[in-house]
Amino acid sequence: MDIRKIKKLIELVEESGISELE
């Protein structure tokens, strides 16, 4: 697995999670 791809996936999940909380 590419670390860059994993980091991008984590960022997307965090962004979606934050947007849901707000």
TrEMBL record:
The name this protein goes by in its record: Acetyl-CoA carboxylase
